[in-house]
Amino acid sequence: MKEDQAVCALSALAHTQRLRAFRALVVAGPQGLTPSVMAEQLDVARNALSFHLKELAHGGLVTVEQQGRNLIYRADFMQMNGLLAYLTEHCCQGGACEVTGPAHISRSCC
């Protein structure tokens, strides 16, 4: 992943509703979700959600597929993993990172 792609993806995630929508799509897995189901799950207006999904798609983090009358949004796991790899590419100068607490709270290099 290039720097400008990482910036675009991070920018797309830099909003509470977009982060929540992306996480919902990650949980949904490969089958994805329709905007109406996501709006209900996230308790957000459909028109607002549409704007946020457009931003996530622009950031390369979600894909959209038309199935009949429905749109199916899916997390792009390859892009997500590419972003994570970009962010951690030179972590600890290539050495193993030491976990200092629960993995979901904090990590400390070397």
Automatic annotation (TrEMBL):
Pfam families named in the record: HTH_20 (PF12840)
Q: Which residues form a coiled coil?
A: none
Q: HTH arsR-type domain: from which residue to which, for each copy?
A: 1-95
Keywords, alphabetical: DNA-binding, Transcription, Transcription regulation
The record's annotation in SUPFAM superfamilies points to: Winged helix' DNA-binding domain (SSF46785)
**Organism domain of life:** Bacteria
Q: Which Gene3D superfamilies match?
A: Winged helix-like DNA-binding domain superfamily/Winged helix DNA-binding domain
Name the chain's protein.
ArsR/SmtB family transcription factor
- To which species is this protein native? Comamonas terrae
Q: What is the lineage of its organism?
A: Bacteria, Pseudomonadati, Pseudomonadota, Betaproteobacteria, Burkholderiales
